[in-house]
Sequence to fold (153 residues):
Amino acid sequence: MPLSLHEQYDKVYRYCYFKVNNAHLAEDLTQETFLRFFSQNNYISRGKPLAYLYTIAKNLCVDAYRKAKEQPLPLDITSDDTGLAALETTIAVRQAVAGLPYDIQEILLLRYSNGLSVKEICEITGLSRFAVRRRITAGHETLKQILWEDDFS
Fold:
């Protein structure tokens, strides 16, 4: 199955955004990911291009994280009750996910935000199907427990 880069662009962007939590930086990292991917013509025709694409993105995000400085919180939060409730839930879920081990965070992101199959996640991470499924299940259970304790059941 050939790699459809148009389909992967948004997924790589979401992956980068999750890692750096900055839309502009995530866009830059996504562009750089594809530039580096295409500059390595010899790898595109062989190997696992999807895994290679995510490896490039992951390494760029790690580099960006190392260079990152503290960002101030935005001061323009609205006081709309429905928006505030949604914001509160989003913050609670983000905090719960942030409390998970890094490898589980990454697998949940690839599975649910990017919609990748277990097989594709195995290719990207180098883990077995059993290990990926175990980490997804562990992530679900931990998130349930954290959100249950915070009354978000």
Q: What stands out?
A: The chain has a mean pLDDT of 81. DSSP finds eight helices and no strands in the chain.
